Amino acid sequence: METSHGFADPSIGKTYRRLRFLAGAALVGMPLLTALSGFFSGHSLQDSLSDYYFVVKDGGVPRTLFIMFLAFLGGVLFSYRGLDENDNRIHNLAGLFAFGVALFPMPCSVSDHPYCQPALLPVLHLPSAGLLYLSAVASVVYGGGPKLKEVLNSFPDSQTWLKRLRRIKIIPLVLMTIGIVTFLFHKPFIGYFPGISWIFWIEYLGFLGFGIYWVRLMLLINAANSEGRHLQALRTEKAQKEEPAAPPALRKAVKPAPQIEQWSDIP
Question: Which residues cross the membrane (predicted)?
Fold first, then answer.
C-alpha cells in the first residue's frame, strides 16, 4: 500500500542510508588513504589529489585507490535516489562529474611525473573536478529540499528539528567556502608558504565537508524516523482508547474510526 509521505519501502530506505554512510566515510577517509599510500611509496604529499594518478610508475596503489574512490563515489551519487526530484538531479550530476574526474585524468607533465602517459581528454579533468565541488556545495545548500522540511514540520517540536537541519549545514559550508576562497586567492601566498600542497587541501576541504554533511544528515534522518514511528504509535494507542464500544449487533452500524496516518521512513 502506498504510504503517506511517498518515501521508499523500508528495506530500500535502509539501503540508501547505508550508502549515504559509506559515501560519507569514503569522502572523509579515502583522500587521506590515497595520500598515505603515496607516502609509503616514497613520495611526499602531492600538489593535488589528481596527481596520485601519475605519481607511481604504472599507477600502483595510489592510482588504484584514487580511481576506486571516484568510481565508488560516482556510482553512489548517480544511483542514489534523492529525497525529491531536485535532490536527485543534484546527486546524479555530482556522480557524473566524479566519473569525469576519474575518466579524464589531469594533463600529463613529464617534468612533474616522469612516468606519466597522456590519457583521455585531459582538458575535461579540471571542469569535471570543479563541477563536482560545486555540486557538493549545491547538495548541502539544498539540504534534502522542501519534502524533508515538510516531514520535519509535521513533528510537534518542528522548529527544533528545522534548527537541527540548519546546523547540519554550517560546518560543511564553512569548510567548502574556505576551500573556494583559498582556491581563488592562494597564489600570492605560495611564495610565503612553500611546500604546502594548496590544491590537495582545498580539494580535501570539499570532500571533508560533503562527507560530514552526509553522515550528519543520516543521523538526523535516523532520529526523525524514530520520532515518526513513536508518534504514530502514540496516535494509534490514543485512537484505540477513544474508539467507542458497541454491542455485537450494532458494530456494523457504528461509523469506523478514521484511519491513522501511517509513518513512512525517510530513506
Answer: 21-40, 60-78, 90-107, 119-142, 168-186, 198-219
249: confidence class by pLDDT, cuts 50, 70, 90 = low
Q: Find out whether 139 and 91 touch, Cβ atoms under 8 Å.
A: yes
The answer to whether residue 177 is domain-embedded is: yes
Q: How confident is the model at residue 198 (pLDDT cuts 50, 70, 90)?
A: very high
DSSP letters for 124-185: GHHHHHHHHHHHHHHHHHHTTHHHHHHHHHTSTTHHHHHHHHHHHHHHHHHHHHHHHHHHHH
Cell of 222: 535516523
State the virtual CA torsion across 252, 254, 257, 258 in degrees, nearest 10: 80
Q: Tell me the average pLDDT across 261-266.
A: 77
Is residue 259, in this structure, part of any structural domain at all? no
Count of structural domains, the chain: 1
190 lies in a domain? yes
Residues spanned by the domain of 60: 10-241
- Asked whether the beta carbons of 24 and 214 are under 8 A apart, the reply is yes
Q: What is the pLDDT of residues 113-155, one digit of tens each?
A: 888 888 889 999 999 999 999 999 999 999 999 999 999 999 9
Structural domain includes residue 267: no
- The pLDDT score that the predictor gives to residue 110 is 86
State how far the Cα of 131 lies from the Cα of 23, in Å rounded to an integer.
Answer: 18
pLDDT for 118 equals 84
